[in-house]
Structure formats: C-alpha cells, structure tokens
Amino acid sequence: MQSLISQQAAPSSFDPKTMRVRIAARRLRELCRWMVAVVGLIAVNGVTHAAVFCATTSTELQTALDSAKNNGEADTIKIARGIYKPASANGFTFYSNEPHSLAIRGGYRYAQGNPCYLPFNSSELTVVDGEGTKALLRISPGSTADISITSMTFRNGTNGGIGAPIDLGGTVGYVGKISLERIAVRDNVSGLSIQAYNEGSISVRNSLFVGNMVNDAWVPMANFSTGGTDGSGSLEFVGNTVSGNGVILAGKFAPVQLSAQSGAINAYNNVLCGNTGDDLHIFVNISVAITLAHNDICSMDTSTVNLIQIANLNMDPGFVGNGDYRLRGDSPLRDAGDNNPPGGTGSVDVGGRARVVFGTVDIGAHELQDSIFSDGFD
Hints:
By secondary structure, the chain is mainly beta. It has 3 helices and 30 strands. The protein has a 17-stranded mixed beta sheet that branches.
C-alpha cells in the first residue's frame, strides 16, 4: 500500500501548473536582478546620485552644508533633535552653483545605532539659535535647484546689517522651488526675519511666525516673493499662524508680504492677526490672480484688482495665550478651514500632530487635537 501511494503521488510533483508558477518566479527573480543592476549602473553614471547626511552638532551641520554644495548630487541633510548655534555671524550657509536639490529636515531621534533614524514631525525638536547676535540660515543654490526645509525652529536671529537671518534663494534667474513646511520663526530681531525669493514657485505650509521684532519701519517681518515674467510663478501660503510680531521704530509695518510678478497667489487657512500695523501686505503685478480663502485676517493692505475672497474672518483667533498659539476649544477657527487648498493641507500640523481631526481642518498652524492624537511620529 505504501509503495502504491508513493507511485500515485509522484506525478503531482510535475504538475504543469506548479511548473508554470516556478518558471514565472524564476523569471521574476531574474528581472529583479536586472533592475538592480540597471539602477546601480545609472547611479554610477550620475543620473540618480543622492547623498544623505546626518548632523548631531553645529559643526556637523555646517560641514554637511559645505559638502553638499559641490558634491554633484541631490542632497538630504537630516538633523537630530537639539539646539544648533552657528559659529559665523552669517549663520549656517550654503552657496552653490549646482542644479541639485537640497532638503533639510529636523526632528530625528536616535535608534538602531543611528542618531538620525526616527523622524518626528514637530518643529520644536530641532532648533537653530542665533543667540541674538547671528544670522540663522542662508541658502543660495544653483539656478534650478529646489530647496525644502521641514520640521525646524529658527529663533533669536539677527541679520548683522545684511539680508535676513533666514535668507533663501534671492538670485536673479533662480527658478527652483522653495518649500517650507512645519517651521517656526520666532523671537528674531532684524530688518527681516525671513525672506524667500525666486522666479518659480514658493510653498509655505503649516508654519508659525510669532514674536519677531522688525527694527526698521516699512520692512516686513517675512517676505515671500516669486514669479518671473513668463506667468509660471506661484505662491502658496497655507495653514500658517502669524501673530505677535511688531516693529521697534514707528512707521508703516506688515508682518508678512506676499509678492508676485506673474502667476498666482493662494493664501488659505491662515491666521494673520494680533500684529503691529497691518497683518498682511500683498504687492503684485496687476496681472497676478490672488485668492484669499478661509483665513482669519484682522487687517490687510492691498491694492490689487484681481483679488478673490472666500469665507475670510476678522476676529479674535482664540489662542490659548501666554505665548501658546494653539487654539482653545471655543475658538471660532475650529473646523473653519478649507480641506482642499492648493497643494493640500499637509498630513500634520506644526507640532507634528494630525492636521484634520474633526472632519474639517482648523485655521492656523495648530490643529485642535483629540486626546488620541499626540506623538507626532512619522
């Protein structure tokens, strides 16, 4: 009986269906090996080069920036949690003529033997501090290189009489994209605290601009300017909080200036309230289309004719107070935003917590949280 069973079972090992599966699996493995070889060949020939740095000290951060500026690669700099103080009065600097992108992200935590292993989304964990005497970060890239800065705080900076403590892009003919997400710019004293200029596109999302003082009247605290003459420029200012900023000298002042020479400006879901002077200044070419939607704007200076306003408010935001710019439970900005702004809301707020909790996004950089959303882990 045992011999008969063995003889009957033997043909099943040569089942045609099983053989087809095995052949297909072998071909798939060969294809995967071929794809790995091709990707490796492409990388060797410089097509998809990318470099990743991990910085845990101020010296390592500047060294990473120096290495990235001329290594011929797209660069990502991961910064561990901590406070970083530039050695130079010019702040941390990156000056490059290369066309490769630069991405800087903070909030990393040690794990698996790697100090930059676990990313957290909060802006509060990685801090660049100018100690009241130095600039913070100045980046001048190649003409087509994209810049992105994520999950960082910039505080106590000054401009040293030139530019801004945070100075991004700024060269004529620069068409790369500038993306700022979940950054906090606070407690700086300067002519400008932050400026970003290009002739391409700028995105500022889920960020906090608070407690900054301008020491020169007629100058904005933050200036975001984009757009060449070809109509391709765009500026997205979405889900930000701008409050508690002021001017030392008397004169006309607005904490934020949005400027464009062509294309469009879209400002959605922002709090611009509680600043000295006007809370928003818009300066554009007459052809630029501007949409302001679901913002809380307490005062505004604009002369544009192509302005569309949708569901904007003008009221006390209902902050927690005492330097805490989160919303109280009774804030009128709860669930008052637009869930589909240009470029999206982002998945988390400036504190690294869920961006949409109760069905509709809140106005401002902070989302009022249900107790189950808390850690900000990516």
